[in-house]
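F.,

This is the one I mentioned.
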C-alpha cells in the first residue's frame, strides 16, 4: 500500500510538469555556462532582465498592447470562420465554390501578406488585426468543415425520417456533433494569432511583445528577448487553459474534454 501511495504521488508530480521544467532549467543553466550573457543568458540573468522590464512598466504595457491585438483579430476570425465553415461543410454547392480558394490560401502564411497589409491598411492597428484575422480563419474553418462532414450520417437520416426538416436537423444533429472539432479549431486559431502578432509587431509597431523582442537586439539585451519569448509562451499556455476550462464547463455535453 505504501509503495502504491508513493508511486501515485510520484506520478502526480511528474504529470504536473514540474519535473519537465526543472530539467529544462538545468539544461539551460548548464548551456549558459559556456557562453556570454549576450549570446545565451542563464535563467537568473533572464529573471533580472525581466524584473527590470516589470519595474519600469515596459513589460506590462507591451503585454496589454499585444493582448488587445490578439483578442480583436481572434474574435473577428471566429465570427467569420465558424459560420463560413459550417456553410461550406454542410452545403455541397458552397463547398465546391469556396474550397479551392480555401485550399490555396491556407498554405500561404500570414507573414507573406505583411507588406501588402501595410500598403492596404497602413502601419496602424488595422493592419495588425487584419494579419491576425487572416492567421486565425483557416485553422478554425478547416476544423469546422471537418466537424460537419464527420457527423454520423445515420443520425442525420434518423432525424429526417422522424420528420425533421433540414434546418432542424442542422441545429439539432449536425451542429452539436461538430462542436468538438470547432472547439479544436478555436484553440488552434488562438495559437495562430499569438504566433502572428510577433511578426506583425516586429515590422510595424512601437509597442508590444514582438516589438520588444525585435528591438532588444539593438541593445544586445538577449535576456529581454528571452523574457519576451517566455511571456508569449506563458500567455498562450494560460489562455489555452482558460479556453479549455470554459469548454469543459459549458460544452461538456457536446463531448468537449
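My design for it:
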Amino acid at each position: 500500500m505504501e509503495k502504491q501511495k508513493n508511486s501515485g504521488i510520484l506520478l502526480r508530480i511528474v504529470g504536473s510538469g514540474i519535473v519537465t521544467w526543472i530539467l529544462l532549467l538545468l539544461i539551460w543553466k548548464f548551456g549558459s555556462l559556456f557562453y556570454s550573457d549576450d549570446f545565451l543568458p542563464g535563467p537568473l540573468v533572464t529573471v533580472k532582465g525581466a524584473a527590470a522590464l516589470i519595474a519600469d512598466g515596459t513589460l506590462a504595457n507591451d503585454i496589454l498592447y499585444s493582448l488587445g491585438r490578439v483578442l480583436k483579430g481572434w474574435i473577428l476570425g471566429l465570427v467569420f470562420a465558424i459560420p463560413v465553415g459550417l456553410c461550406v461543410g454542410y452545403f455541397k454547392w458552397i463547398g465546391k465554390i469556396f474550397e479551392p480558394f480555401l485550399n490555396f490560401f491556407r498554405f500561404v502564411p500570414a507573414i507573406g501578406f505583411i507588406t501588402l497589409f501595410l500598403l492596404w491598411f497602413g502601419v496602424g492597428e488595422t493592419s495588425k488585426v487584419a494579419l491576425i484575422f487572416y492567421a486565425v480563419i483557416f485553422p478554425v474553418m478547416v476544423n469546422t468543415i471537418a466537424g460537419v462532414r464527420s457527423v454520423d450520417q445515420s443520425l442525420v437520416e434518423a432525424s429526417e425520417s422522424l420528420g425533421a426538416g433540414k434546418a432542424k436537423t442542422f441545429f439539432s444533429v449536425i451542429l452539436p456533433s461538430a462542436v468538438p472539432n470547432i472547439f479544436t479549431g478555436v484553440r488552434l486559431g488562438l495559437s495562430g494569432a499569438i504566433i502572428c502578432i510577433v511578426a506583425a509587431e516586429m515590422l510595424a509597431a512601437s509597442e508590444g511583445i514582438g516589438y520588444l523582442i525585435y528591438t532588444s537586439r539593438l541593445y544586445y539585451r538577449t535576456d529581454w528577448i528571452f523574457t519576451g519569448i517566455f511571456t508569449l509562451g506563458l500567455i498562450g499556455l494560460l489562455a489555452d487553459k482558460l479556453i479549455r476550462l470554459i469548454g469543459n464547463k459549458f460544452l461538456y455535453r457536446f463531448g468537449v474534454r
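The two ends are 32 Å apart (CA to CA).

Talk soon.
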